Amino acid sequence: MRKLSAFLFLYLTFSCSESETSIPNEDTTEIYLLPVVVHVLHNGEDIGIGTNISDDRIKKQIELLNNDFRRKSGSRGFNNHPDGGDAKIEFVLATKDPLGNPTNGILRKQLVIDDLPNDIPAFEFEQYAHFSYWDSKDYINIWVAPYPEDLTNIVLGKATGPDSDLPGDSLFQKPLPGGAEGIIVNWAHFGETNLAGGRNLGRTLTHEMGHYLGLLHTWGDRNCETNDFCDDTPAVDTEVTNDQPHLGCANEDVMVANYMNLTSDAVMNIFTNDQITRMRYVLENSPRRASLLTSKGVKSI
């Protein structure tokens, strides 16, 4: 979850240094294409106004997400760091709905919390799924949530983590058993905006997608020895919110540009090779992640 450190009580503890379980080396030449469905939960405005964000803004956000995951040259997502890599993971708005009908991958629903039945658990993912949700075996559900203005730059986003045999699995926020899962992004931080505060270039979704695919914050369990279980992210044992160069564990330079920090969008531009290996391992082995690779959301039934 991306939130300011002053509001750590709102945080989900997510996050990759040395692992007690080694991840097999693999050929990462295959590009994985993952279908997403964007559920715009709004306050009743016309499309393009306020919380009911426009199709163009959504499409731009998906473009930014792909730039970051593919380390696209000429984009903000490019880096020439020796430990940085191209994840060869791409995201596309779903082209088929669960019944096989054509779709643009964007759903809109006015959010009226008072309409929630009493039997819906008091868990944000379940509440939003009551209004709009597609099976997570075939789609990555992204809810654009109409958080009030006073939560702008405080609550940015959150995600459910995968089930896996990788170290750090217990640090993720998990869905309820058999329940809804996905990513929630504050509407104010979705896509490129003119918002002040440094979280306006679409990196909230990049960060949360990292969690959804098995990445922890770089500080992980706040332990210099294990932290995020990715060896090529310099070890830190506290949250990274400072954009300026500074030292972490063993006086090693902190990788402030890593997407799994809480630094400003403008400084973020790197997933490391170990982080990429971890995400691809999750995609190939985690139950409701591996099924995305054969999703009917982007293929004919």
Instruction: Give the domain tally.
Output: 1
Q: What is the helix/strand order?
A: EEHEEHEEEHHH
Q: Output the radius of gyration.
A: 18 Å
CATH architectural group = 3-Layer(aba) Sandwich
Helical fraction equals 10-25%
Count of separate DSSP helical elements: 5
What is the assigned CATH homologous superfamily?
Collagenase (Catalytic Domain)
First and last CA, distance: 34 Å
Q: Please tell me what the overall shape is.
A: globular
Strand count, sense and closure of the main sheet? Answer: 7 strands, mixed
Helix/strand-derived category reads: alpha/beta
Tell how many strands the DSSP assignment holds. 7
Mind telling me the CATH class? Alpha Beta
Instruction: Give the CATH topology.
Output: Collagenase (Catalytic Domain)
Mean pLDDT over the residues: 92
Strand content: 5-15%
* Unreliable spans: 4-20
Structural write-up:
The chain is of the alpha/beta class and 301 residues long. The protein has a single domain (2-294), classed as Collagenase (Catalytic Domain) (3-Layer(aba) Sandwich). The chain contains five helices and seven strands. It has helices spanning 55-70, 124-131, 203-212, 273-285, 287-290, and strands at 2-3, 32-42, 89-93, 106-110, 140-145, 155-159, 183-186. Strands 1, 2, 3, 4, 5, 6 and 7 form a seven-stranded mixed β-sheet that branches. Helix 1 (55-70) links the parallel strand 2 (32-42) and strand 3 (89-93). 46% of the residues are buried. Residues 4-20 have low confidence and may be disordered.
